[in-house]
Records
---
Amino acid sequence: MGRIGREEFLASDKLPLTVVVDNVRSLHNVGSIFRTSDAFRVEQVLLCGITATPPQAEIHKTALGAEDVVSWKYYKDTMDAVRELSEAGYGIYAIEQVEGSIPLQDFRTEEGCKYAVILGNEVKGVGQQVVDACDGSIEIPQFGTKHSLNVSVTAGMVIWEFACKLGWVKRG
C-alpha cells in the first residue's frame, strides 16, 4: 500500500495545520483525531484542559499507534495554546457555529500560511473565551435535525478540507 514507516513519517514534510483539542472528554475521540492527523501528516496536535494525553489504552485503541508519531503537546489552559500559536504567526480558527462563522467550503487559505483549528468539547463546543481569541470561526453546514457532529467526525472533515485547500489533495 506504499505506507511510510515511523522514521520517514517523522522526517517528512507536514501539512501546515495544527489541531487544537479543547476539553474533549472521550479518549476514543482523541485517538480518532490522532489517527486522522497521522493520515494527513498534520503538523501537531495540542491537547488542552480535560483532554486526556497518551499513553492511554482507550486512545491507542482508535489511534492505532498514531499517537506515537504525530507530534503533540499538552496545555492545561487552551488560551495558553492559542497565545503561543498567535505569537508564532498561525491563523487560528474555532470550528464552531457562531454568528459570522464561515462555511467550511467557503474558507480560503493563503499559500505559505500556517493554520490552527480548534475542536471543542462534545457537549459545550469551543469555549467562548477561546472563540473570542481566534481570528475567526468556521462551521460545517448541516441540513438535518441535529446541530452538531461528533468531534472526531468534524476533525476528519476539517482536516480533509484543509489538505485539499492547501494543495495536499487534488480534487476531481
---
Amino acid sequence: MIKVGIIGCGTIGSALSLACRTRFREEVTLEAVSDIDLSRAQRLQRKLHPRPKILTTDEIIRHCDLIIEAASTTLVYEVVKKALSLGKEVMAMSTGGLLGKEKELFELAKTHRSCLYLPSGGVVGVDGLKAAKMGKIHSVSLTTRKPPQGFLDAPYVLKHRIRLNDLKDEKVLFEGDAAEAVQWFPKNINVSATLSLAGLGARKTRVKIIACPHMKVNVHELYVQGDFGSFYTRTENFPCKENPKTSRIAVLSAVATLERILKNVKMGT
C-alpha cells in the first residue's frame, strides 16, 4: 500500500482525502494530512474513517511515499524541493509557485529518480500542448473569465482598488504574460502556470483575465499555434460551492491525476 500525505485541507485536499478513503482504498493508505490552519485539518480528520494523523509538513514528507501539495503558491516550492530531494513522489496543485524554479526541480526529480506530477487543473488542452511541444509552438494564449467574487482578494485588484461589486459589464482586469498573471492573481490563475510549464514558458504565454458580473461559470479559452497547425479549447467550469476561486474540474483533475499515478494503464498524451 502506498502511504499518502496531503498538505492543504481546503477544497482540493479534502476531495483527494475522501478519494483515498473510497475510490483508491485498495491502493493507498491516507497516512496524514496537514494545514496551516489546524482547525481546518481537524475538521477534515473528523470526516474520515479511519482518521488520518495530523502531522507537520516536514513529518509528512519524511513518512509518506506520495506527497500531495494542495496548499498555496507560497508553500509549494519548499514542499516539492524537500520531497524530491528525499526521492519521494510528489503531486503539486499550486503550480504558480513553481514558475522560475522549474529547471531546479526537474533536475532534482531526475537526480533522485522521483516523479513530480502536475495536474491539468481547470483547463482543457494540456495534452495537445504537450504533443505540440514535440514540434515547434509559435504562440500560446489564455483568456480567463470568472465572476467578480472570485477575484476579490487578488493583489492586483486590491492594489488598483477595483470595485468589483459595482461592475455592470465585463471588465478586463489584466493583460500580460503568465509570470505576471500568477504574481497578481496567485489564487486564480494556476492554469496559466501549468500551460507555461507544458509549453513555451511563463514569459511567452499570454494571459488575459476578465471579470464578468453576469457569469456563473469560470471560463478558460486556450489558443495554441504551431507547426502542427492550431487548436482552440473553451472550458466552462462550475465554481466549487466551497470556494468560488476553484473550478470543479480542477478538483476532478486532481483525483484523475492520482488515479493515473496508481493505475497501470495511462491514457492521453
---
Amino acid sequence: MQVHNAFVILGLAALLVWGTGASDQPVKIGIVDIDQAISSTAEGKAAREELARKQREAEAEIQPLVDRYKEAEEDLKQKRFVLSDDALFQKQLDMQEMRTQIEGKMKELESKLQLDSKRLEGPLNRKLGEVIEATGKDGGFTMILQRGAPGLLYTREALDVTDLIIEKYNQKS
C-alpha cells in the first residue's frame, strides 16, 4: 500500500513539474508539520492540555477497577489450591466479568477521548487548513505537502514552511 501511495505521489509530482514547466513561474514546494503547527499555537496548546487532562481523568476513573482486578488475581493465586472446584470456577468467572467490565469501560473512555479530540482539534485543523491555503496562494507555492504524508520519503529542511504557517496562524487568531 505504501509503495502504491509513493507511486501516486511521484506521478502527481511528475505531472505537476511537467504541467508547470510550460509556465514562466518556477515550481515552489513547501512542507508543513501539522502536529508541530497545532502544538505551537496558543489554541493548540490549550486543546492538547485539555485532552491530557481528560486522559488523566479517564485513567483515574479506570484505575480502581484495574486495582480490584489485580487484588482478585492475587487472591486467586494464593487460594487456588485450597478452594473447591466450584469456588475456583466461580472466582474465575468473577475475574472474567471484571476483565470484561474493564475492557468495556476502556473502550467507552477511548471513544469519549476520540470525540473530545475531534471536537477540540477539528476547528484548529480547519483554521490551519485555511491558513495553509492562503499562505500557498500568497507565497506563490505550487503545492504544500504535509510532513509524514504517505509517499513523502524525504524533504530538505529548506522546504519546511511550518514556522511561517504558525506565524500566520497566530496573526489570524
---
Amino acid sequence: MLYTESQKQEHIEEILGLLYQIALRDSRIPIVLPSKEFTEEAALAVRAYQEAYGLPVTGEIDDATWESIVDTYHRLMDAAEPLILFPAGEFLLREGDGGELVRLVQVLYNLAANRYGNLPEIAVTGKYDSATADAVRVLQRIAALPETGAMDRDTWNRLAALINRMPLEL
C-alpha cells in the first residue's frame, strides 16, 4: 500500500501536536503550532527536542525521534497535576462575572504572562471584562482548547499547569 500525501500530512500534524504539548511544558523546546507542513520552524523545534533529550540532532523525525516524542508526551501528560485551588462543582467564569474568584484568575494569569511572553498581561480588577476574555482566548489558542474566552475547568488546568512549571522564587 502506498503512503499518500494526505497520510504524510496527518502524521506530520500528529507528531507536531505532541511536540507542541511537550514544548508547553519544557522551555528548552520552541513552541510551534501543529500543522500539516513540516516547516523550518518545526525542524528547529525537532532539533531542540533532539538535543534536549539526547538524540542525534538532525532536525528530522526518524523512528527514534518519533518514539521518544510519543514517550515524552505520555510521561508528561501522566505526571501533570492540576492546581488544587480549582472551585468544586460546576465552574465557569465569563465576561460580565465579577468577584474574588475573577481576581484570583487575573492574578494567576498575570503570573503566567510575566513568565511566558506570548500571554498578554491584564488588569487585575475583579471584573471579567473583555480584556480578560481576550487574554483567556489567547491561552486557549496556545493550549489547543476551544477559544470561548470563558474560564472553564480545562482552561484552568492549562493555566495551573503553566504556573506549576514555574520555578519558585524566594
